[in-house]
Structure formats: structure tokens, C-alpha cells
Design brief:
By secondary structure, the chain is mainly beta. It contains 7 helices and 41 strands. The protein has a 22-stranded antiparallel β-barrel. It has a 5-stranded mixed β-sheet with strand order 3-9-10-7-8. A 3-stranded antiparallel β-sheet has the order 4-5-6, with no helix packed on it. Strand 5 and strand 6 form a beta hairpin. The chain is globular and about 95 Å long.
């Protein structure tokens, strides 16, 4: 039977097949009233009895430490979910796992990773000169960056989400955490498969299916496919179709060859994802909206709506988030008797097109675009001991090579620029200064204002009236690493491990500002601020680092694990996608800087590092009917790679230090023969220092750039939680079943200053889903309602800039999906 099937077999667990299912969850006690609402609804949803065999929780088997182990024996903060669990709560792409993992937040609806925060650490850069802080893997192979890493979840065996620096478990360093998706593999024993169809409101239609085809006793093929589509749900005052729709499809073919000593999986996968760029909604508050944008809009206040899913966006460039991804991987395990030799080879090619109406307004204040293509190759070889003695070990080496080519676009209407910063239309501005010269019989204003800043004394609008500020960055990156992890069993109850890793990373990067495709006189004044008239600027740098991890484990009995660990993490340096350095960038007005090859170079930044300490407890209680895992952590994170503004310039550099601490709890319990409950949550706090670069708003309001010193990071919620209640009741030849799932994040601050100075509280995740259905041995049907209470929350925000000159308004982005009802039908053979 397939790992993803949710079909019913009398006497068997229905939370995971061929997978021992004590799945993880989260709920902080500080928010019991919210959990009580979820539990109360669950109790009323028709929970009944599960078979007696479900009384005792089964083990979750993971391979996060390169060996098959119970998740309760792994001294790591890890959350695991089976493919059946993933389908049951309707997680559609890899970032959706965030909703059911403590300590992680920032699931945006686009294909970017910059808002994913693990214990408060996120990728504070959306360019392509650096690397993500959280690493995404599929079958242990690195999935890359924005536009390439996010893929659909279908035909999944399990998912493993690890928190904290992970330098010894994957081919690439993971400085804050890692998500690893393990897809279902072929088996040579029988022909089998499944198909599932989901039909719901707003044109929801999803298909997922797979078929397993044995060829002979050693060879089998598994073919899996996925399609998902949905109409938009955000109304636009400016007109047009509802926003945030999608149409995604994927195909995966996996071929397995196995004999007594060798297992080889060849995986070929294709993803075609057609989604909507992030949708921004102006809040209607602040000087930028009330004064500056009213002036830009011809003196007419811009209309807003109190409805949280209504926006007023021009969408003059059609928003899109479209990726086409081809991946091939080869996984080989060879049993040498005394050790297992593993080879992992991966190649990925992708094309990505992204456009968003960033300003959230009907004026063309800022359209952002990104067109990229890339290739990624990796090879890892690992040897893991199979000895019976007290010493165990694994060692490995890895190599990667990446090519990335991206054109960025910052688009603005010419008159928005002139009205926003010069208080007149462009034509009136030129007429005014030329009129002064005519009146005084001179050319002073022409020479020192118009010609100097605009390159002409005569205003000629571009054919479209738009400024197209484009730049192209090309990166050629490669690196290698070697690692060794040693473990020693001192006694039946005490063991320890020590790992060390050496990493080398090299980046060759070029930066070129492109001519305006419409010939606007205002080119380079929207996003880049510089030109490169003699061609691209280039730089090449490399970095290396030794990282380590030490763990001490104590097992006072078979059901209890206590562990303490210390680990360091590292992310290599890189280059900013929107700035240059050198004489050509100094002392020049924004838009008039000139970068020359040999004299100037792309802006760069150094590595960021972390040292993290953890203590943890994992225990199986009540004769196997309950499992609890909790981790307390403290870290010191230095030299954050961050994008920020220096005046009008967009810069990426190393900024400050963050000390973070928190607690994560997960539990699973068989409440009775009838009910299973899984819950968990996290608490997080932090203190940031030397973050003056982030404190522009605080400096405007207080006169001091130190106004944000000692504050916590604003994007990380203090609490996160989730709860899942499952029930099954034998009925006829099958069983009735029901599930209620609840995910929640505490509302969080919108900017770095103190709350009493400037405060925008961002509504965060709060979703309750209910599923009821009936299943027999080969089929099931269920009805569901997602976001039962029709709560509204947002993926993130742009806080109100208190400076009088800004034209960018306070907004939120990514409004939540509304209440959605539908039906799923599953057939297994």
C-alpha cells in the first residue's frame, strides 16, 4: 500500500502507512483560549473511536542523521510529517510546512524565501548575489534559491524540518535550518497506485496521483503527477479579474534498481508553476498616503476599502510568479558491510519570471520585475559506518556549481517621479526652470539643474511615459566541503558525538545597468542609481570556514532522551544585486553615479556566522500513548547579511548582531481509543545591537540612529502554535473519520523602532480547518472547510516611513485565502 494513501485498513493506523506516525505539532500555553476554540470545535465535529491498535503511538522513522532512527532518538530539533499527514491538511508546496512546525514563520504565497524565518533568522535580501538562510532540499539534494527552490508537494513519503544550524547533514551549509522532502520511491514487489481529486469553491481543482510498476525482481518505475488550479480571491477596486490565482502542474518519474547490496534511484522531475505575484494592500494611513500620493494622484485621495481582501492596484504590468523547473537526481547506496557508501548527484535547470505591483496603489509608483534563468549541479559522496562497536561515524565531501543570470526591473511613471520628488509634472518642472532662465536672460537653471540632473534642458517624455530602470547580474558560483562526524557510546545510557566541517565558497559576479528600453530621460533613478556605460563591473571573491557541532546524549531509560548541543553555522559572503562600490559611487546624486570596469566593482558583503546552544528532552510516556519533545535554545548571530537603504540607494551589507533565545514544544497523545491529539508551539525573544542601518524610521522620529538598539527582530512572532485532533469510527465495511487542524502565529511588529514610537501590528496566521469523511479499503470521500472562521491575516508588510519625502506608503501584502469548502475523492489500487 502506498505511503500517501489515506485508505482504511481495519486494525491499522490511519495517520501514516509504512510510517510510524507520532507526527509533530505546537501550542504555547500563553494562548490557551485560542486552542480551546479549536478543541471545542473538534469535539463537536463528530469524533469517535479508533481501532484498539491505535491506542499506542507508533514511532516516526526519519533519516535526518543519515541513519534510519526514531525521531524520539534524534538529538535535533526536528519536526516530521508523513505524506498522508501532508495531504490530509492540504499542504500544497514546501513552504506550507511552516504552518505545522514550531519556531518557523513567514510562509508567503510567492516563490521567494526571504520572509521565511527560523528562530527569528531570515534571508534579508531578495537579490541573487547571496544565499538563503534556510535551505530547502528534496531527497537530500539542494533545491536552490528564489524561483527554483519552492515546488509542489505530491506523492511524498515524508517531510523533515530541522531547526538550528545544520552543517553535517546535507551537502550545503544551512545556517538557520533546513527542510527536506523525501518523495515516494518505487518498490519491486507489486503494482499499485492511487488517484485523488479535490474540487472546491472559486474553481479549486486539484489532482494528485501515482502508479508503481515493477519491471522485474530488481527494477521498478514510479510515475507521479500533480495539477492544481484556483481562481483569484482578492477584489481590485481598479478593476480586472480577482487576484491571487494559480495554475500549477508537475510530473515525476522515479526508477529504482536494487539488489542485496545496492539501491539506486534515478529521479526526473518537471514543474510548471503559474502563480500570482505578491499582492500589496495600502492601509490608507501615514503622510506618504494622505499627502504625497494624493498630490501624485492629481489632488484626489486614493480610494481604499475596509475589506482586508480588497486592494486598489493598477497592475499595469501583469503580476506573475511563473517558474519552469527541470530536475534530475541520482541517489545510490552501496552496502559495503562495514559501512554504507552513498552518492548523491543532482542537476537543476530553471527559468523564472516575476512581476508585482509593489506600491499597492493605482499610481505606477513602483513595479518590480525579475527575469532569471539558472543551472545548478551538485555531487556529494558519503561513507557511514555500520559497525556494532561503541564508535560510529560518517564522513563525506560535496561539490556544487551554479550559474545564475537575472535581469531586475524597477518601473515608475515619469510624472509620479516628478510629482513625488519635484512637486510638479515633468513638463511643468522643465517649463518652470526654463522660464526662469528666459526671465533672467541666462542658462543657469538649464546648466546646473536640468542638463546636469536630467541630461537635457528640453523635456521629452518616453513613448510609454514610464521609467524602466533595469540591471543585469550574472553569477558563477562554486564550492566544496568536507565533513566528519564521530560518535562514541560511553555506556548504555551515555553517548556523545563531535562533528567538524570545512567549507570553501567562490563567487564570480558581474553587475551591469541596462539602457532604458523606452529611452526615458529619468533612467537609473528608480532602483539602481548608477549607470555602467562601458560594460559590466565584475568581481571575484572566496570565503572559507570551519564549523563544528558537539552533542551529549543521556538516556536514563529506554523511553527518555536528554541532550545538550553546541553548534556553529556559516553562510558565505556575496554581492548586492542593486549597488556598486568604488570612486564612481561616491559623492554623486542618485541616478548620476557612473561605474567603470577596472575602477569600480559590484557591492559585496562578508559571511554571516552563528553559534547555537540547545538543551532538549524527548520522552515516550503513559505506556507509549504519549510522546513529548521540547528544546530550549540560545544563539549569537553575527554580521547579518541584510538589504537596507542608504538614502535612496539599496545596499546589501553585514549589519550587527542578534542574540536569540526560545523554547519549542511538540506532543502527540492517544487521548482514548477514539481520539488522537497532536499539539506544539514555540516562544521566541531576541535582542539586536548595532542595527543602525535598519533604524531609519527611529532616527527620523528621535534624532538618534540608536533608537532601535536592544529591540527584538520585528518579523518573528513571539509565539506560534498548532493543534490537530483526529478521530476514526468503524462503520460498516469501513470507517468514518474526522480531523480538525489549527495553525496560529502571534501578531508581530512591522518595523524596528519601539512600539510607542511607530507601530504597525501585522495580523498573522490564524487558520482552522475541518475535514469529515468515510473510507473503505480502496476508496475514500471527504468534505472539508478551510479557514472555517474566515480570518484575515497577511504574509508581511512595509511599515510607514515617517520621513516627509517618501512616496512609498504603508502596506501589507499577501492577504489570506477566505473560507473555502470542497470535496476530495481518493481511490487506491
Amino acid at each position: 500500500m502506498e505511503p500517501q494513501s489515506s485508505s482504511y485498513t481495519p486494525g491499522a493506523s490511519t495517520t501514516g502507512v509504512a510510517w510510524r506516525s507520532a507526527a509533530t505539532s505546537q501550542v504555547p500555553s500563553a494562548r490557551r483560549r485560542l486552542l480551546s476554540r479549536a478543541v471545542a470545535v473538534a469535539m463537536l465535529s463528530g469524533a469517535a473511536a479508533t481501532p484498539a491498535a491505535a491506542q499506542q503511538l507508533e514511532e516516526v522513522i526519519v533519516t535526518a542523521t543519515k541513519r534510519a532512527e526514531s525521531v524520539m532518538d534524534v538529538p535535533i530539533a526536528i519536526t516530521a510529517m508523513s505524506g498522508a499527514e501532508i495531504r490530509k491538511v492540504n499542504l500544497s508546496d514546501i513552504k506550507d510546512l511552516i504552518s505545522f512546525t514550531p519556531g518557523i514563520s513567514g510562509n508567503s504565497k510567492d516563490s521567494f524565501l526571504d520572509f521565511v524565518s527560523v528562530r527569528g533568522i531570515r534571508t534579508i535580501d531578495f537579490g541573487n548575489g547571496g544565499d538563503p538562510s534556510v535551505s530547502l532540499y528534496k531527497n537530500g539534494l539542494y533545491q536552490g534559491r528564489n524561483g527554483a527552490a519552492v515546488s509542489s508537494l505530491y506523492d511524498i513519503e515524508r517531510a523533515e524540518v530541522l531547526r538550528g544550524p545544520q552543517g553535517f547533514l546535507f551537502g550545503r551549509n544551512s545556517v538557520s535550518g533546513a527542510m527536506n522532502i523525501i518523495t515516494a520511491k518505487p518498490n519491486v514487489s507489486e503494482t499499485e497506485g492511487y488517484a485523488e481529486v479535490d474540487v472546491g469553491e472559486r474553481g479549486v481543482f486539484t489532482f494528485e496521483g501515482a502508479v508503481n510498476l515493477p519491471i522485474n525482481d530488481n527494477l521498478a518505475v514510479r510515475i507521479a503527477g500533480f495539477h492544481s488550479e484556483e481562481d483569484g480571491y482578492v477584489d481590485n477596486i481598479a478593476g480586472g479579474d480577482d487576484l491571487i490565482s494559480h495554475d500549477n502542474q508537475s510530473l515525476r518519474i522515479t526508477t529504482r534498481y536494487e539488489n542485496e547490496r545496492l539501491t539506486a534511484d534515478l529521479i526526473v522531475e518537471y514543474d510548471d508553476r503559474n502563480q500570482f505575484g505578491s499582492v500589496y494592500r495600502a492601509t490608507g494611513e501615514g503622510t506618504a498616503f494622505e499627502v504625497n500620493q494624493t498630490r501624485i494622484n492629481g489632488g484626489v485621495p486614493i480610494a481604499t476599502s475596509p475589506d482586508g481582501r480588497t486592494v486598489n492596484n493598477d497592475n499595469s504590468l501583469t503580476p506573475r510568479d511563473d517558474s519552469e523547473i527541470f530536475f534530475i537526481g541520482l541517489l545510490v547506496d552501496v552496502d559495503l558491510g562495514w559501512a554504507t557508501l552513498t552518492s548523491m548527484t543532482g542537476y537543476k535547470d530553471h527559468d523564472y519570471e516575476y512581476v508585482e505591483d509593489y506600491d499597492g496603489l493605482p499610481t505606477i509608483t513602483f513595479n518590480y520585475g525579475q527575469s532569471q534563468s539558472g543551472e545548478y549541479f551538485e555531487q556529494e559522496v558519503r561513507l557511514a559506518s555500520n559497525s556494532e562497536g561503541p564508535l560510529d561515524w560518517y564522513a563525506g565531501a560535496s561539490f556544487y556549481d551554479e550559474d545564475i543570470d537575472t535581469i531586475f526591473l524597477g518601473q515608475q511613471e515619469e510624472d509620479v517621479y516628478c510629482l513625488g520628488y519635484w512637486f510638479n509634472t515633468c513638463a511643468d518642472l522643465f517649463d518652470y526652470y526654463n522660464g526662469l532662465d528666459s526671465y533672467y536672460g541666462q542658462t543657469t537653471y538649464c546648466d546646473y539643474y536640468l542638463d546636469y540632473y536630467f541630461g537635457s534642458c528640453d523635456w521629452t517624455p518616453s513613448p510609454t511615459g514610464l521609467i524602466n530602470d533595469r540591471n543585469r547580474v550574472i553569477g558563477k558560483y562554486q564550492g566544496y566541503s568536507a565533513y566528519l562526524d564521530l560518535g562514541y557510546q560511553f555506556s548504555e545510557t551515555l553517548n556523545a558525538s563531535l562533528g567538524v566541517r570545512y567549507s570553501y565558497d567562490e563567487k564570480d559576479f558581474s553587475q551591469e545597468a541596462l539602457p532604458d528600453s523606452g529611452g526615458s530621460l529619468l533612467n537609473y533613478k528608480v532602483q539602481t542609481g548608477f549607470s555602467t556605460p562601458e560594460g559590466a563591473l565584475r568581481d571575484k571573491q572566496d570565503w572559507n570556514e570551519v564549523t563544528w557541532r558537539a552533542v551529549l546524549n543521556w538516556r536514563p531509560n529506554m523511553d527518555t532522551l536528554l541532550f545538550a548541543s553546541a553548534a556553529t553555522g556559516y553562510k558565505p559572503g556575496g554581492f548586492g544585486s542593486f549597488n556598486i562600490e568604488g570612486p564612481g559611487s561616491e559623492g554623486c546624486p542618485f541616478g548620476l553615479c557612473v561605474g567603470l570596469p577596472g575602477r569600480d566593482r559590484p557591492g559585496d558583503f562578508g559571511p554571516e556566522t552563528v553559534i547555537s546552544y540547545e538543551i532538549g528532552y524527548k520522552g515516550t510516556l503513559a505506556d507509549g500513548r504519549a510522546q513529548v519533545a521540547t528544546t530550549a535554545f540560545y544563539y549569537e548571530y553575527e554580521d547579518l547579511q541584510a538589504i537596507f537603504g542608504e538614502g535612496p540607494r539599496t545596499v546589501v551589507d553585514n549589519v550587527g548582531q542578534v542574540d536569540g533565545w526560545g523554547l519549542e514544544v511538540e506532543a502527540s497523545v492517544a487521548l482514548t481509543d477514539h481520539l488522537r491529539f497532536r499539539t506544539g508551539g514555540s516562544w521566541f525573544d531576541s535582542e539586536a545591537t548595532n542595527v543602525q542601518a535598519f533604524c531609519g524610521a527611529g532616527e527620523v522620529l528621535t534624532g538618534s540612529a540608536d533608537a532601535c538598539e536592544g529591540n527584538s527582530v520585528p518579523w518573528a512572532p513571539e509565539y506560534t502554535a498548532f493543534a490537530v485532533l483526529d478521530a476514526n469510527y468503524p462503520l460498516g465495511d469501513g470507517e468514518a473519520f474526522g480531523t480538525i487542524a489549527w495553525s496560529w502565529e502571534d501578531d508581530y511588529r512591522g518595523d524596528w523602532p519601539d512600539e510607542d514610537l511607530i507601530f504597525q501590528r501585522i495580523k498573522a496566521l490564524n487558520q482552522t480547518d475541518i475535514i469529515v469523511g468515510y473510507r473503505q479499503s480502496s476508496w475514500q470521500v471527504s468534505a472539508y472547510v478551510e479557514n472555517v472562521f474566515d480570518d484575515i491575516w497577511y504574509d508581511g508588510n512595509y511599515a510607514d516611513d515617517p520621513s516627509a519625502s517618501t512616496i512609498f506608503v504603508q502596506h501589507t501584502f499577501g492577504p489570506s485565502r477566505p473560507r473555502t469548502a470542497g470535496v476530495r475523492v481518493n481511490y487506491t489500487f
